[in-house]
Amino acid sequence: FGTKYEPGPIFPMMFISIACGAISGFHATQSPLMARCIKNERHGRPVFYGAMIVEGIVALIWAAAATAFFEQHGTDFTAAQVVDFICKDWLGVIGGILAVLGVIAAPITSGDTAMRSARLILADMLKMEQKSISKRLLLCAPLFAASLGLLIFSIMNNDGFTIIWRYFSWCNQTLSVFTLWAITVYLVLEKKNYFVTLIPALFMTCVVTTYICIAPEGFRMNETIAYIIGGVATITAIVWFASWKKKNEPVL
Question: Does residue 182 lie in a domain region?
Answer without folding.
Answer: yes
